[in-house]
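Dear colleague,

Following up on yesterday's call, I've attached the two folding results inline so they're easy to grep. Please treat them as preliminary; we haven't cross-checked anything against experimental data yet. The first protein's sequence and structure tokens come first.
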Amino acid sequence: MNSHISFFFPEILSNPKLTPLHGTLEVVMNQNVSLSCHSDSGSPPVRYTLFKHNQKVSALNRTDLTPVLFNLTINSASDVGEYKCKAENEISNGEKYSRSLNFTLKGTFFLLLLFFTEPVSKPVLSSPNSQAKTGQNVTLSCLSEKGSLPITYTFFKDKQSIQTPVKMQKREAAVISVLIKSSSDFGMYKCKAENRLRNKTKYSNISLFSLTSMKERVIDSSILPSFIVLRTTAKPKAERNARL
């Protein structure tokens, strides 16, 4: 008697499609918005997750490949912007993302929004680390005490951004960790804060750190952008030879 054994291999999902049911990406305050998300192919069950500004909003499960519907309400300016959805099934690391949708407020509402937007205040760049050496992670935080949310923070080293911008929806500092791999990682660091008023961008104050004493010296300047300078201090050659 011949027996047949069947094997089922889950199929990876296709990139999901995220579409607004009302057909337009221009919205007004207090408007209800419905977003459809689904993958055309792949093995169910499927879990769909909706993200707003890279933050999880909601998640829904499907036992088949029918679309899920996410219902939202535009209550404030923080509800507009970038949305995307993620689809995943039982395949490890098989998650797929949709293209982003960017919701904007209709012209009149956007102008009113800008009128009532408070510019960001000069951010403060700080580090809780009392020392830094090669192989150590240095934590940097940047915070503007005032300004309408959301606020986007960008960190720089020697005028080059070192990580993707961090958008904060709450009045909290943006925090990053910098690994000091070599002497090239020492140098000038600064951060930038901005909100919807892009022409009101502000930079942090100047701070100088010395690796020998690690005493912080703050230079108050209303013109220059702020930096954290991490540098090493080598002993003079004559002093090293004297000890030998």
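Below is the second protein, in the same order (sequence, then structure):
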Amino acid sequence: MMPDRVEEMAKFAEGDKNVRAFLKVIRWAEFYPHGNLGSDYRRRYGGSELNDLKDHPMNQTERWGKKSSASGAYMITKETWVEYKKKLGLTDFSADSQDRVAIAIIKQAKAYDLIREGKIEDAVKKLNKRWSSLPDGSQHQAGVTMEKTLEQFRAYRAEEP
């Protein structure tokens, strides 16, 4: 018996809502407590903003005694950008391109299906090495606990149409 196509599509759409909500969670954690602002895609490590989104800035900024090229909504480093720009055929550092890189990273970490299935805690555990602001990541972002992360995911998920 063939699965009901409407039910299959409904499950797929629900998974997409989970992915969109999870991307918001990453932005929330990266810029805690000021994530998910319109400027997230223009942010740089240390708090400055990009002048344009034509391409990743490629240079490092220094803050808190550390240097980093991390930029954009997902704090994408120069090395990561060069790798995924080529893999994905990206032509700019736009919000869409940044989202596509984040999703590719999530897929590579084998967390995409977990997110689509709503297994958010399991996904976080697979991704907290890449996004160190997530719970139990190396950044130990103050206030970003697993409990708050799951609560934030549920809030973002509820916002999805």
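For the second protein, one point worth flagging: The mean pLDDT is 88.

Best wishes,
A.L.
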